[in-house]
User: Which sequence fits this backbone?
């Protein structure tokens, strides 16, 4: 009660101070006039009005004087002074625009960059998943030990029979749901949209704890083979394709040519576990259409599995149980063959698996880097304020001497610091906004082509500016500024003002200056060291990127357009090769197209498969794994992969003729060491054998970072195994400009089948280089920033000390020192700072680069080129930072300096 | 004159807030009314100056013990009326209690010397 009244009063003083003041004046005037009237009445008219007023004044005191007292109590005086302080601070800023600009932008960048990175981390790693009790959800995957073909995995997809067996065997999950996501073609009106959807079972929504916003979800009773074809659509699809019309329930949605009845709308923002789903289909109902329908096959590994923990079961216990059940399930479904994998089962909290480990580590690295930038920024602000406070000691001493109160002075300096910090904070908002947008735009790049791994792509929310992070980093940076602005302020307002006045006029008490300098020196050394660490980190990343760019991938990526055509689900293997024959012929006749081929995947963009190969010629030899590709005759022409010996795949290698294969140089060497590969037999793991007819050049299929692996190429026309083929067009001009012509040509031969996933091969490859490039750019930016800040810091410290030593310089020059001597003296000071900072920094740099070894290609963490480069760069920066003040010192006329600048 | 003023002020210093609250606890008053009331009740022994009264009024408002509002005086002029709040009444009670305790203590001391 009293609090509210009290706050109301203070609020009024603060916001309507003028009104409050006139009220006070009027009230006191009323007092005086009432008193005057009383006097006049008492004298029964003997007193004139003026006399009565005077008497009242005498009796009750001078109201003008006392009003000040009342104003002070109410807080109005403080407000006045605050206004003065702000005006004074603004004038000071205007007088020192360089200092102001540097301090503000340093704060802005330090705070802004940190906020942006933290916002990304918060969105991707920290914010809870948008499901009910997300910490009770676990991702359950099959696990595979590491083989020659790849690293160990524990989020491998399941087959339905194994899922059923697991469901029976376990008792730690109260609910388990099966799902997978795919790209589909959805027809709305005349438009064909290529969008992502998820195949789910009826337990999906209950397990996640998501209720539909409208309508219903799939029922358990519908969850059987031949069940109704129903679909739940996302809020986004509902609004964009159906204008949010609730009459859409009961209508049908055309998905890849099959009609599904819309039964429900998901709540806004829900995009499934994949984070990209626009609708949810029961996978059980549309038989055969999507090639996943072989439900009874225990080796049809297509499905992800998510479980909700039963009450009272800890995630650790569930993981232990899953691990224990693993071998039993595997034993129920034994695979034949010498290299048959032994599956285990691994359960991880869904939250842990939502972002790929690589992305997680990348974000952690960026956070560390940006944290260093913040530290450098803080150190810089601190040393700026120290230098500034020191350079104003004389002004402060003068003001104290002419009667300013100490508290008032400190307050004024505090106002200045706070104001400066406020400007920095505001500017940082803009930096953070831009930074967040950059990171959001770079999201696919950050993912680094990992998006094939299903659960790893949970991207639930777009990355938004995180205000908590902003407040946090702003508090740190601003707090630093205020602290370092205030401590010297309090020190310099200590009552020993005569000392201050004297010292500043030139009679330097050396010990004192030395003590003050050391604080600034330490800050500068700290800045330099951090800048060196960042420079080393970005240096090795840039070098690594340069190596990657220089890698010859074994094919010619420029001048190739790649695209896919949606197939008709009903096509048989025969009709599909006939379709591609027609399509290739038609595309070849497009002006500007040189040659056309198809392959099951483009290099370095994921989706390639591999196989185990046996060698009938060499019984008993261990099987070896290699990449397996299905290509058509012109593939080598399109890709510029050279033939080394034998022949290429020809158009006569069709269905019915003996299987032929090409092997890569590496495959030839590792399959038949010291022997000629031509004419040898290889057997695929399902038994088919083929004769090697040619050896071709190595191609880096798995990624530019990976050494060439053994690759085997077979004729697609002999065995059209895969339905998802990619057309490759070698063009004469810029391939990007050919996209429309290719689209048109395909529309002629395949009307109604959407062309999608159109990209030049270079775009796909640069996507593969995207992450290293993004990291190198971002880290370089941070490093340059840190270097610039450190240079500014060094400059500030040295020019300050030069200003302090003007007199000393004058004496030296008067005694015969040359300009060169003076310059050497000043630059020497910078060199000492750089040497100490650089040495500390290099030690830190070695540790830092070792920790980012995983991102490096062909560059040792302690890369001599990088380290030498840093030393040179640092030397240049320090020379620059100390050269300007040194010149100033050397050009001081001796007389002026001696007179006492 | 100066001396007697000082004595009066001295006496008022710690207790003015309490006296203002006391006068307002009877009825809302304007500033001059408060001064008059205190003078009248003390039989002219206590004189309230503007210089002490108005800072006190601002202070009491700041604490939330009184509130102010413009109104009309009996003579028809615009005057600011001060009203005691519930918190002010509690405060007044506390002050009187401790003032009484202090008076007793002082009296004890005086009797002994």
Assistant:
């Amino acid at each position: 009660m009293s609090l509210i009244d009290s706050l109301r009063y203070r609020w009024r003083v603060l916001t309507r101070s003028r009104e409050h003041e006139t009220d006070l004046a009027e009230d006191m005037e009323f007092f005086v006039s009432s008193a005057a009237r009383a006097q006049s009445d008492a004298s029964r008219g003997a007193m004139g009005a003026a006399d009565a007023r005077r008497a009242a004044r005498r009796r009750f005191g001078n109201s003008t004087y006392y009003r000040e007292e009342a104003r002070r109590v109410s807080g109005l005086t403080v407000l006045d002074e605050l206004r003065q302080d702000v005006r004074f601070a603004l004038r000071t800023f205007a007088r020192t625009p360089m200092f102001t600009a540097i301090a503000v932008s340093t704060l802005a960048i330090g705070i802004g960059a940190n906020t942006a990175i933290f916002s990304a981390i918060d969105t991707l790693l920290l914010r809870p998943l948008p499901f009910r009790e997300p910490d009770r959800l676990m991702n359950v995957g099959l696990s595979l030990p590491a083989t020659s073909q790849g690293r160990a995995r524990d989020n491998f997809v399941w087959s339905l029979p194994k899922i059923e067996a697991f469901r029976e065997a376990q008792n730690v999950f109260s609910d388990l749901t099966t799902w997978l996501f795919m790209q589909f073609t959805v027809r709305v009106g005349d438009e064909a949209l290529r969008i992502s959807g998820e195949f789910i079972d009826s337990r999906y929504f209950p397990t996640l704890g998501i209720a539909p916003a409208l309508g219903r979800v799939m029922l358990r009773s519908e969850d059987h083979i031949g069940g109704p074809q129903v679909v739940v659509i996302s809020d986004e699809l509902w609004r964009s394709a159906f204008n949010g019309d609730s009459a859409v329930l009961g209508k049908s949605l055309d998905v890849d040519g099959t009609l599904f009845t819309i039964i429900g709308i998901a709540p806004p923002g829900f995009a499934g576990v994949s984070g990209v789903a626009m609708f949810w289909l029961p996978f059980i109902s549309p038989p055969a259409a999507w090639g996943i329908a072989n439900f009874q096959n225990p080796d049809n590994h297509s499905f992800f599995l998510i479980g909700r923990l039963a009450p009272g079961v800890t995630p650790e216990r569930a993981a232990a149980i899953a691990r224990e059940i693993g071998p039993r399930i595997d034993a129920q479904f034994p695979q034949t063959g010498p290299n048959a994998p032994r599956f285990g089962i691994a359960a991880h909290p869904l939250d842990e698996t939502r972002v790929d480990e690589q992305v997680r580590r990348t974000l952690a690295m960026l956070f560390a880097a940006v944290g260093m930038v913040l530290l450098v920024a803080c150190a810089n602000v601190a040393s700026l304020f120290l230098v500034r406070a020191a350079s104003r000691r004389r002004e402060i001493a003068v003001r104290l001497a002419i009667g300013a109160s100490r508290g008032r002075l400190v307050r004024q300096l505090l106002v200045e610091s706070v104001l400066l910090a406020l400007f920095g904070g505001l500017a940082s908002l803009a930096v953070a906004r831009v930074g967040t947008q950059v990171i959001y735009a770079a999201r696919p790049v950050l993912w680094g082509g990992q998006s094939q791994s299903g659960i790893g792509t949970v991207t639930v929310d777009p990355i938004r500016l995180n205000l908590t992070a902003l407040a946090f980093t702003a508090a740190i940076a601003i707090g630093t500024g205020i602290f370092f602005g205030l401590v010297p302020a309090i020190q310099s307002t200590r009552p020993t003002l005569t000392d201050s006045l004297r010292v500043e006029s030139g009679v330097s008490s050396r010990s004192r200056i030395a003590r003050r300098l050391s604080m600034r020196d330490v800050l500068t050394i700290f800045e330099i060291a951090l800048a060196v660490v960042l420079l080393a980190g970005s240096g090795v990343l840039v070098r690594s990127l340069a190596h990657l760019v220089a890698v010859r991938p074994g094919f010619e990526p420029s001048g190739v357009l790649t695209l896919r055509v949606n197939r008709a689900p009903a096509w048989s293997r025969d009709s599909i090769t006939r379709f591609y024959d027609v399509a290739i012929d038609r595309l070849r006749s497009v002006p500007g197209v040189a040659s056309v081929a198809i392959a099951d995947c483009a290099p370095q963009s994921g989706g390639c498969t591999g196989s185990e190969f046996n060698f009938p010629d060499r019984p008993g030899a261990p099987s070896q794994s290699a990449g397996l590709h299905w290509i058509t005759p012109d593939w080598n022409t399109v890709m510029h992969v050279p033939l080394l010996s034998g022949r290429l795949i020809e158009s006569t290698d069709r269905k019915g003729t003996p299987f032929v294969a090409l092997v890569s140089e590496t495959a030839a060497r590792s399959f038949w060491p010291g022997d000629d590969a031509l004419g040898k037999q290889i057997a695929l793991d399902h038994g088919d054998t083929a004769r090697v007819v040619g050896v071709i050049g190595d191609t880096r299929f798995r990624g530019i970072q990976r050494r060439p692996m053994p690759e085997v190429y077979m004729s697609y026309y002999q065995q059209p195994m895969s339905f998802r083929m990619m057309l490759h067009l070698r063009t004469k001009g810029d391939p990007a400009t050919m996209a429309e012509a290719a689209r048109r040509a395909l529309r002629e031969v395949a009307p109604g089948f959407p062309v999608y996933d159109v990209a030049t091969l270079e775009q796909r490859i640069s996507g593969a280089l995207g992450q290293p490039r993004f990291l190198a750019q971002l880290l370089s930016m941070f490093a340059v920033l840190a270097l610039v800040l450190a240079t500014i810091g060094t400059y500030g410290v040295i020019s300050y000390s030069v200003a302090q030593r003007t007199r000393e310089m004058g004496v030296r020059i008067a005694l015969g020192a040359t300009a060169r001597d003076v310059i050497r003296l000043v630059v020497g000071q910078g060199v000492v700072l750089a040497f100490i900072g650089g040495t500390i920094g290099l030690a830190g740099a070695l540790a830092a680069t070792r920790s980012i070894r995983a991102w490096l290609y062909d560059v040792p963490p302690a890369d001599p080129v990088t380290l030498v480069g840093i030393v040179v760069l640092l030397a240049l920066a320090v020379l620059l930072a100390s050269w300007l003040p040194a010149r100033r010192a050397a050009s001081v006329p001796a007389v002026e300096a001696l007179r006492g600048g | 004159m100066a001396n007697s003023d000082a004595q009066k002020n001295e006496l008022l210093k710690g207790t003015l807030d309490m006296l203002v609250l006391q006068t307002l606890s009877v009825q809302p008053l304007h500033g001059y009314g408060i001064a008059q009331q205190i003078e009248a009740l003390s039989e002219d022994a206590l004189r309230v100056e503007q210089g002490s009264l108005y800072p006190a009024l601002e202070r009491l408002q700041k604490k939330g013990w009184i509130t102010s509002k413009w109104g009309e005086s009996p003579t028809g002029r615009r005057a600011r009326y001060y009203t005691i709040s519930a918190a002010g009444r509690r405060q007044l009670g506390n002050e009187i209690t401790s003032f009484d305790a202090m008076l007793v203590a002082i009296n004890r001391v005086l009797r002994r010397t």
Observations:
- Confidence is low (pLDDT under 50) at residues 447-460, 497-516 of chain A.
- The radius of gyration of chain A is 38 Å.
- The interface with chain B takes residues 1-10, 23-24, 26-28, 30-32, 34-35, 38, 59-63, 65-67, 69-70, 72-75 of chain A (CB under 8 Å).
